[in-house]
Amino acid sequence: MDIVLDIRGLTKQYPARGGAPAVTALDHADLAIGKGEIFALLGPNGAGKTTLIGAVCGLVRPTSGTIMAFGKDMRHDWRGIRRRIGLVPQELGFDIFEKVGRSIAFSRGLFGAPADPGRVETVLRSLQLWDKRDAQIRTLSGGMKRRVLIAKALAHDPELLFLDEPTAGVDVELRRDMWRLIDTLRDTGTTIILTTHYIEEAEEMADRVGIIDKGRILLVDDKAAMMARLGRTEARFTLAEPLAMLPPPIAAMNATLTQGGSVLCYRGGDGSGKGKQEIAELARMLVEHDIVFTALDVSESSLEDIFVNLVENGAGAAR
């Protein structure tokens, strides 16, 4: 894998002030991102996602650790590296009296890219902003202002793009436009790092997923491999008659009785289909032992289930 971004031991500590204790926003974080991949970084509020992005984009000075981007050390060539990075921040921030088209053109020049009205037009059209090019930003709706932020990040044709909660609080139409835009950027070889609270976005778009909590990266893995390794299958058999206990062969198959013996619960598998095979075998064994069931409900772990489990149980859950 051609590594675009290599983070090693990245730590950010804020000292104690005004009686408040010291805070460790990043705790020896390691992360390597390959060229052209879409990487989703998931974590609860305050986990360190935005701090990590800020460190790479030069907005936060790390306490320790190294950041290598495009094969160069951020400490020695920050300006050259930053020109190749785009950032869509969480917060809306721009000159609200500026016109949309001029704002995008200015952002392109800010990163040293030559004037290119055609490129600006392409970016505006891709985000349905072309008709608003002469409108002052202050007159736009919240969703349109979010589109302007995205356009500004794309104006200088970044090779590495950070999307920090890009669809938080926006309408469904913009969210879908964002998904289409990310697909287009993938085709051009742009590397994208996405933070999101919408785990279905990560499940839909990401090649790999990382989970961060309390400044520590708990797990990084290919999405499919993560689902296979940490996913689980659950089944609930509603029994026609309550049981006092299960026959030993059935009890040995990750099966337990609940609700006074009227429901048999199974939890097992590994996200690769093994669970469904075991459920079929369990159903066969119930019939073999003359245990009648009247309903069967089966569910597979989602990426959200894995995320919640890791955050609640910490790094040990990944082992």
TrEMBL record:
<dbReference type="GO" id="GO:0005524">
    <property type="term" value="F:ATP binding"/>
</dbReference>
<keyword id="KW-0547">Nucleotide-binding</keyword>
<protein>
    <submittedName>
        <fullName>ABC transporter ATP-binding protein</fullName>
    </submittedName>
</protein>
<dbReference type="InterPro" id="IPR050763">
    <property type="entry name" value="ABC_transporter_ATP-binding"/>
</dbReference>
<dbReference type="InterPro" id="IPR017871">
    <property type="entry name" value="ABC_transporter-like_CS"/>
</dbReference>
<dbReference type="InterPro" id="IPR003593">
    <property type="entry name" value="AAA+_ATPase"/>
</dbReference>
<dbReference type="InterPro" id="IPR027417">
    <property type="entry name" value="P-loop_NTPase"/>
</dbReference>
<feature type="domain" description="ABC transporter">
    <location>
        <begin position="5"/>
        <end position="239"/>
    </location>
</feature>
<keyword id="KW-0067">ATP-binding</keyword>
<dbReference type="Pfam" id="PF00005">
    <property type="entry name" value="ABC_tran"/>
</dbReference>
<keyword id="KW-0813">Transport</keyword>
<dbReference type="InterPro" id="IPR003439">
    <property type="entry name" value="ABC_transporter-like_ATP-bd"/>
</dbReference>
